[in-house]
Amino acid sequence: MSKANINSHTIIKVQKLTKKFNGFTAVDDISFTINKGEVFAFLGPNGAGKTTTIKMLTTLLRPTKGKISINGFDVKHHQHQVRRSFGIVFQDFSLDEELTAWENMYFHAVLYKVPGNLVKKRINNLLRLVSLSDRKNDFVKTFSGGMRRRLEIARGLLHRPQILFLDEPTLGLDAQTRNKLWSQIYKLNHKYQTTIFFTTHYLDEAEKMASRVAIIDHGQIVAQGTALELKQLTKTNSLEDAYLKITGKDIRQESVDYMSKMRLRQSRRPR
Ligand SMILES: Nc1ncnc2c1ncn2[C@@H]1O[C@H](COP(=O)(O)OP(=O)(O)OP(=O)(O)O)[C@@H](O)[C@H]1O
Ligand SMILES: [Mg+2]
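Above are the sequence and the magnesium ion SMILES. Below is the predicted complex in structure-token form.
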């Protein structure tokens, strides 16, 4: 697999972005740009500010300071155009378990005003892209974690967004399922030049898939570049070692802690 399908047109531009929650600075004066077609990995320890940044980029949270441009539109002044420019897969599962895969897709298509004559074809094509065609009439509650993630990705693509935000898309999935998911994301990136912005606790997949990486710690970007550049900078042989040197934290242990937290949260959810 070669890396991302990039051109030189800027699609995400973040300038001096800050978010404070009652005096606590969750995101602290960060700046970066992403070109169309890039696969960009946003890495950092738990609580570093990754999800908060994604929420600001996707109009769900208002920045305290700073400027964000998505697909040429200012997030503050052109919310509608910004929202049409991206699809998002949240850190927590967000499908309706009591509906079928098809119904989940259909309601999202209605929400995004996909023209009626295109809905059926588009849903079928996307379900094929994520290899779920044969399960389309099954309830989501019968799906595995990997299948749910694939369905969420398909759903996020219904309105043909230029950018896809993926917050921990593979957390808790086994290695084989992660590979399969990434080969589908890769296909999407190559076929449609979709820009991918993702966070992950698996540094092997960031190293393999991302054209560029930024590391955020305590709300600040502490390093950014290609995986190779970060390895050279820290004189290490893997992105995982580079990350450890830059942040002083072992991301593998974090992902184990994080998953137990998630499991606890899900087991508390009302059924
Ligand atoms: N709505 C909120 N109110 C107050 N504090 C918040 C809020 N949302 C996030 N925070 C705090 O901001 C910091 C950054 O949180 P964020 O969820 O962005 O981290 P993250 O990098 O996504 O972490 P994780 O890897 O655990 O998902 C944390 O200290 C968190 O507790
Ligand atoms: Mg997060």
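The mean pLDDT is 90.
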